[in-house]
Specification:
mainly alpha; Ferritin; 13 helices; binds acetyl coenzyme *A; Ferritin-like_SF; PaaA_PaaC; Ring-1,2-phenylacetyl-CoA epoxidase subunit PaaA; phenylacetyl-CoA 1,2-epoxidase activity
Length: 309
């Protein structure tokens, strides 16, 4: 056991990857299953807010892009459930835990998409925040998670660009379209900052996850990186970020920003966000409606296996 632990520690210290066949501490396995499952659930639940606009996209081109994007999110969920399975988790059980409200998904997907501009703003801010958070996960110490993240990040970059391009088009349109973009930015800015998780002083998992090199940066570091990256993009777009305290701090070499309303974050995590009930109810319904597909696939797999015997 001591030898195994020493070998694990040496692998982490040498920045090499832990693979499914390797010994790992139970806490490392549990942390990864928790994070990867939460991440997978976020991708799947995250299809809903934008899915809301597929039938109402203004042109065929916008509809095709949105459809492809939402399908990508489904694919991300599937790679991530597969990564969790390499740790011994069972995908059906993870889904049950989500549906029972026992596993989390990202707070951001509990907000409504009230206007078409939200499709652009989700691409720009929400996928932008996701990229900031997830690019370092490509260097996560657990091999299957790190490898899944490479493809996911490439696709997220495309999502971010399509959102920004959509907003650019709207900002070059009418006053009404510009107002729609600004109104959407006002609603999504603060929830996007909350995506990075609680402040470091209140983040129970960060220290250990960083020691294990699952997380490479703390929540506050990544949040700051996102703000620094996004302010010039907002200027180029011609929108105002809804924070009177947002300003460049030459001494720190970063933007200062206002206090996040952590009571709102906690309420959303506790299930009291604007759309929590709706998101889970929709997911439960989809799961029930898909039961016959799972049964048919399992019956086919069994028949096929028998034939091969
Ligand atoms: N939404 C919901 N729950 C959150 C969020 C959030 N934005 N941020 C933190 N939490 C939860 C954590 O899961 C943890 O709960 P748990 O212990 O019951 O699992 C608790 O709040 C405390 O937070 P931390 O100690 O900071 O947790 P952790 O070290 O796991 O960090 C983080 C949270 C940054 C989200 C991390 O899990 C992570 O990087 N995950 C992978 C990325 C991801 O899940 N992205 C999903 C949204 S992006 C997208 O899908 C487009």
């Amino acid at each position: 056991m001591d030898d195994l632990q020493a070998q694990f520690d040496a692998t982490i210290a040498a920045d090499q990857r832990i693979e499914p066949r390797d010994w790992m501490p139970e806490g490392y396995r549990r942390t990864l299953i928790r994070q990867i499952a939460q991440h997978a659930h976020s991708e799947i639940i995250g299809m809903q807010p934008e899915g809301n606009w597929i039938l109402r996209a203004p042109t065929l081109r916008r509809k095709a892009i949105l459809l492809a994007k939402v399908q990508d999110e489904a694919g991300h969920g599937l790679y991530l459930y597969s990564a969790a399975e390499t740790l011994g988790a069972d995908r059906a059980e993870l889904t049950e835990l989500l549906l029972a409200g026992k596993q989390k998904y990202s707070s951001i997907f509990n907000y409504p998409t009230l206007s078409y501009a939200d499709v652009g703003v989700i691409g720009w801010l929400v996928d932008g925040a996701a990229i900031c958070n997830q690019v370092p996960l490509c260097r996560c110490s657990y091999g299957p998670y790190a490898r899944a993240m490479i493809r996911i990040c490439k696709e997220e970059s495309f999502h971010q660009r399509q959102g920004y391009e959509l907003l650019m088009a709207m900002m070059q349109g009418t006053d009404e379209q510009r107002a729609m973009v600004q109104e959407s930015v006002n609603r999504w800015w603060w929830p996007s900052l909350m995506m990075f998780g609680p402040p470091d002083s209140d983040s129970p998992n960060t220290q250990q996850s960083m020691a294990w090199k699952i997380k490479r940066h703390s929540n506050d570091e990544l949040r700051q990186r996102f703000v620094d990256m996004t302010v010039p993009q907002a200027e180029a777009l011609g929108v105002t970020l809804p924070d009177p305290d947002l300003r460049w701090n030459p001494e720190r070499g970063h933007y200062d920003f206002g206090e996040i309303d952590w009571s709102e974050f906690k309420a959303v995590l506790a299930g009291a966000g604007p759309c929590n009930a709706q998101r889970l109810a929709h997911r439960r319904r989809a799961h029930e409606n898909g039961a016959w597909v799972r049964e048919a696939a399992a019956a086919y797999a069994e028949k096929h296996a028998r034939k091969q015997e």
